[in-house]
Design brief:
membrane; transmembrane transporter activity; about 0% strand; MFS; MFS_trans_sf; MFS transporter; mainly alpha; 2 domains
Length: about 400
């Protein structure tokens, strides 16, 4: 593995570990230091807006002034966020971390909790810059697998500390540990060779068509997923009386399987082809999603949930490779920022729709409709890029 790529992966490992437990620790800590529930909601609204803004800004600044430089700046902001949580107990100052948009639950899940969010356009483009096209899917798979396993390890560490120590001590320990670990992430980003940007911020033109196609497909898929994923733990509890520990265990298994599955992405792609793999596997993922609301037991629903997670996330490295191939090398970071935003906003819209349906008891309808809408993602990928392999 090329040295720069090794540094990128290592920096993500050390960032993903604290991010994994920040996602659930932050709201609990805000409540502990006396911030009202209403303001906690405002905190995450601000954090989500800030994250979306940084997601776009990071890519455009990276293409203009160097992706390594902007990634280093974001890594420093992430450490600053953790420093405030670890050592500053003033509620107003802690609340202002929402403006940073980094290191909170706003990233969420595998894409954010494992080190995605505003970091993603930069590290994705940097890996493309320092690799050959034929090895990118494998490298993206390794990067995702390492981040996911690191996030899983972070979850285990937080479980251990919160079990052994009372909240007054465990919060401080986890935030301090996170701050120390984040310094290693900064160190490895610093070791990456400096890349040279274009020197000016500009709207992607050469890659406009490809960016638009990936954005359209991704946005429809994200609406569907947004209608299901945020509230499916609640559905497990309401429909099957699943306990918090059972749901937590299910998610832990999901993280483990996803981390392992990434390592097979390159092999599947070489056998089936990149676009066909994305279309077939994401199509299967949507079908599993459609079947979940008709599950007679929590066990069957869990199997379908795990199968959906693996068949969807295993295509992420393939999608990244496809994007890097069809984007201009001078527009990779900004293009990834735009497509990332095109997924984030519709996901929020889907969550809003599902919240409304859940509030009137239409749990099954929300999940089923989400599965139907998510089918447009693999369908459009095939329609837009079906001739891609023929050009290779």
């Amino acid at each position: 593995m090329e040295a720069n790529i090794r540094y990128i992966v290592l920096s993500r490992i050390f960032r993903s570990l604290p991010l994994s437990y920040m996602s659930f620790l932050v709201p609990l800590y805000l409540h502990k230091i006396g911030i009202p529930t209403f303001l906690i909601g405002i905190y995450f609204l601000i954090a989500t807006i800030s994250t979306s803004f940084l997601l776009v800004l990071s890519g455009f600044l990276g293409d203009a002034y160097g992706k390594r430089n902007i990634l280093l700046l974001l890594s420093i902001l992430f450490s600053l966020n953790l420093f405030i949580f670890a050592f500053i107990k003033i509620p107003l100052v802690v609340f202002l971390t929402s403006v940073l948009g980094i290191g909170t639950a706003s990233g969420g899940g595998i894409g954010g909790g494992a080190g995605g969010g505003p970091f993603n356009p930069l590290q994705t483009a940097l890996i493309a810059d320092y690799s050959r096209p034929e090895e990118r899917t494998k490298l993206y798979s390794i990067n995702f697998a390492a981040a996911t396993i690191s996030a899983f390890a972070g979850g285990l560490i937080s479980d251990l500390i919160t079990t052994v120590y009372p909240p007054s001590i465990s919060y401080s320990l986890l935030f301090t540990l996170g701050f120390i670990i984040s310094l290693f992430s900064i160190f490895f980003v610093y070791l990456i060779d400096k890349d040279h940007g274009t020197g000016k911020i500009s709207i992607p033109k050469a890659s406009f068509s490809s960016i638009s196609k990936i954005s359209i497909a991704g946005s429809l898929g994200s609406i569907g997923l947004g209608m299901v994923m945020p509230l499916i733990p609640l559905w497990f509890k309401l429909d099957f009386d699943a306990t918090e520990s059972e749901i937590s265990y299910l998610y832990s298994i999901s993280y483990s399987l996803v981390g392992i599955s990434f390592l097979f992405a390159d092999k599947i792609e070489k056998v089936i082809g990149r676009v066909k793999s994305i279309s077939i596997l994401r199509g299967l993922s949507s079908l599993f999603l459609l079947l979940i609301p008709f599950s007679p037991t929590f066990f069957i629903a869990s199997i379908l949930f795990l199968a959906r997670g693996v068949t969807y996330t295993i295509t992420i490295p393939m999608r990244q490779s496809l994007a890097m191939d069809v984007f201009s090398d001078k527009e990779r970071a900004s293009g990834t920022s735009i497509t990332g935003l095109a997924r984030r906003i519709p996901y929020g819209l889907g969550s809003l729709i599902s919240g409304a349906l859940f509030s009137v008891g239409l749990f099954t309808l929300s999940i089923f409709l989400g599965g139907v809408i998510s089918l447009f993602d693999p369908l459009l990928y095939y329609v837009f890029f079906r001739n891609y392999e023929k050009r290779e």
